[in-house]
Please model this.
Amino acid sequence: MDYSEEIKAIYGNKIRIRVCGILENGENYLFVNHKKLNKDNIFWNFPGGGVEDGESIRETLKREFQEETNLEIIVEQFCFFNQVIVGSLHAIELYFRVKSNSFIVKVGNDPEFNIITDLKWMNLDEFLGLPIHQKPVIFSNIKSINDLIYPFRS
Model:
């Protein structure tokens, strides 16, 4: 992954805890596109962001969803975690299932560093079919979200 110098300056050389919410609408999931995370300026992930000092994980996820998608959510269950280490960037990502009473989204922003460019409902096949550098690496070799949520299920 080829992060911009701006991203490295803001998030580099420290461990960042991020929370992400998996919002399902039928067979589709809500994804957010981020710019400045690679040369294509295309990087899709579930909505979410960094935990701030004194903020709970649930508060963070609700705030981030509101900022990025203009949706109010209810945080349900913890699903899985992912660790990302790329050069000076180090993040621990916690993924949760969330629900909402509305599925009408509007592109918001990231107040720390405006990198949100688009929102999109995609089915899992569409998301998994994206080039590897346009999505988190953890999603490269799965066939279902349940491969991550329920990895010990037979």
In short: The chain has a mean pLDDT of 84. Residues 5-148 form a domain with the Nucleoside Triphosphate Pyrophosphohydrolase fold (CATH 3.90.79.10). The longest helix spans residues 57-69.
